[in-house]
Amino acid sequence: MSFAAIRRIASPKKALSVVAVAAATAGMALAAAPAQAATTSASSAQAIAHRMIPDTAQYNAFNQIVTHESGWNHTATNSSSGAYGLVQALPGSKMATAGSDWKTNPATQIKWGLDYMNSRYGSPAQAWDFWQTHHWY
Q: Which intervals hold domain Transglycosylase SLT (predicted)?
């Protein structure tokens, strides 16, 4: 079983179980990573965003902004401004309006960022248009 196939399984705990069974069957030792690590990777955050933003053009625009702002690192902190998270909210605590877990949960940061882009610019695509001109949004 490939790791790509395992990533498609809905639950990180279930994925680790599948890996453990496959490893045991193959006679391999498995050093399992904590389930939290699977939920906070860049690719996992991107998958969450894709589910939250089903429109391809809007997702692509959101992806461009987040890639430039944080590289999909949900704990990214700008040392000079203090901006925080995937969408580099300033101050980061603004994201608490989307959930108390804003410091650690990419989904909460995505929700806040999407709401911000929609309310300030009309859509992620319009936010990306602004970003391309000003290099901030």
A: 59-125
